[in-house]
Fold each of these.
Amino acid sequence: MGQSESAPLPVREKDPTHDPLYGFQKGRKEREMKVTPEEMEAMKIPLKERTYCAHHYIYYNTCRNRVWPLAYRCAKEKHAYEKCLYEEENPYINIY
Amino acid sequence: MSNLIKCIKKGVILNKNSGLIVTTIRHAGAWNRDWKPGPYPTTQEEREAAAKKYGLHIRDYKPYPDDGFGWGDYPMFEPLSVESGDPYEHWDMPEYKRNLGDLMHPNFDFYIAERYDISKRSKSYFRLLGEFLAIMSVMSFICYYAETHKVPKPKMHRQYPEDGKKHYTFEPVE
């Protein structure tokens, strides 16, 4: 398996080894992907951005393209995208 | 108006303001034209007079060549850097390490303490090599150590929606 018990830090390149449903009697909600791979490919989203926050990325960039150069009008979309990225961090720290 | 003319005629202003007289007399001298060197000495008497004026012996006195640059009778001498002066001597002007009446080189501002030191000894090639190796070895050790002992943020990689993988939130199913 990927992760070692004695290592001080989880190995980032490998998948978590612990049971993700441990401690959840009825199970956990699955993360929901709002955009299909075909849509992301059609919108030419960078591979790095094809995460669960991709829909916020799409909203933000389409808004920017629409109102450019008045990009400050997309503050709400930018905030939503960055909030999504921020909330994404918590599971990455807690799972291993 | 007539009062003013009367005051000037009688010298009332000058008599009442002795400070005005003092400052006027003080500023009558020590102008740039008073520090200007005299004309180029041609005869022996002129050379002796110029040497005495600059406080030099006649054998030490050697004026700048009369080539049209306007140095006049100013003596030509080797400059002394401020940096090479004795730091423990009781100078009249410690910041320039010179005493009152010392001759001033025309390029004096080039030889002040934070600029050129004419009597400074250069470092040997052995010492230069040693300094180079010392700095480079320390820097390369730091680079090597930082590369091999990385401290990443303790978190997993980002989750990408792929086929056959399930990713969960932290909300339990009701």
Amino acid sequence: AQRHSQQDSHTQYAQLGKDVTIQCGSVDRGAVVTWTANNTDLDASHLNGSWLVLRHVDLSHSGQYSCYEGSSWHLKYRVNLKVGTPPKEPVLMCRSNNYPNGFYCSWHLPSPTYIPDSFNITVKHDSKEIVCEKDASPKNRCYIRYLHLFSTKKYKVTLTVTNALGRNSTTISFDEFAIVKPDPPENVVAKPIPNNPRRLLVTWQYPSTWPDPDSFPLKFFLRYRPLIIDYWQHVELSDGTSHIITDAYAGKEYIIQVAAKDNEIGTWSDWSVAVHATPWTEEPKHLTTEAQGTETTTSSTSAFVVPSTTKMYDSERQAN
Amino acid sequence: MAAARRSPGSSPHHTDLCCRTVLLLRKMRADVSRLLEAYVEKQGLDKNFSLDLVDGVPTASTEQWSEASDAERLGDNLKAYWAFQTLLNEILEEQRSSLTPNDLDFHESIQSVLLQVSALAYQLEELMVMLEHSVPAKELEGIRGARERGLFEKKLRGMKVLQELAHWSVRSVRDLRQLSKPVQTGAIPHVSCCLALKK
């Protein structure tokens, strides 16, 4: 018989692992009905009168359930069943990578809920609520502008997550200075210095997200090691954006990274992208033709080969 | 302090004074942070206590920080450190007389910070004179006439003083650094603290 399927669809949520009962709309409990799941008939074992009972549901139970009146095959009720979980306590983190302009807060759920969740964040400072401007993307992030600087009063951020099966929240409070963490330095480049078999010149730039290097200078931390050794050497630099490594092992390829920190407050950035370089080495005398001077400075992302007729990078003068 | 008239041209001396002030600020900040930790522990307080209700302490928090003039920056700093001199003297007196009467080392560490604050105030005043800014008047009476407080209130107040002092030390370094920035009118900066500030 032709099934009449004119019926607006409902949505019902069910918690993973629980039993679910779906009523056939307003149909009498004792009426004879047929239920389908995604247009597949369900056998009578799932029925309790006209109610559909699903045991220990899992994600595969999500789908469209339809209830037809026994004799007329008239669609009496249709529901979209969504199986999921109530939200766990969200993970919330706030950080200022563009001090002193402001800071952003980002969040995520420790495990998926499989159903739509909505997030609400409130930021309080000096018992006043501050607007947290939602980023278009990523969605789970918003931005707060500093209205005051150098405040000893803590910021208190509360994130509440809600879905059809429950609700959870987390609150963090922090001091303005504590969350200052720049982005890693950018454009890190390491080059050999001709005629200096134990030296490497490393240069880098301020993270582009750091707004005012003049008023808020960063200091830097450089770490380097030959690829063949697992032990890092470190040097802290409170001035400038270049450094000459003077104790490199001759002829050994080095891996180099840089980190940054505000001169006065906050924590160190993550390490920059790693770059590689090998100190300058004497060209073997017997080679008469122009030797291909290979100087490999590759960052993890790009490598370049120095042309044989290298315009001598007179870094010695640069270095002094 | 006699306002000795110096020509604004002697910027190397400004720079040197500015740099010494920054180094002092950094040293003081480290000492204040340690002192604050010791203070919280010895007074049996919790560092997350809300101190919003404690008043009469110069707050480092500021709204239009980047727009302030040199004179305002230095003036605000100087008034703050004068106030901290008085407040630290009060704290020291309270610790000696009733809160930690036998903890001489603790008293010494407060005394040490007090001396640094005094030196700081002196250097800021000198810098203002050098840069030909008018030195603000010292308003002390308001603080000295404060009403009698309970022990717990005294403890909280001391904590607030040290917390604000730590934040002021960061703000002051930034303020001094702003002095070295070319003003909008393009005039050359009076003082260049850049090198020391980067240490």
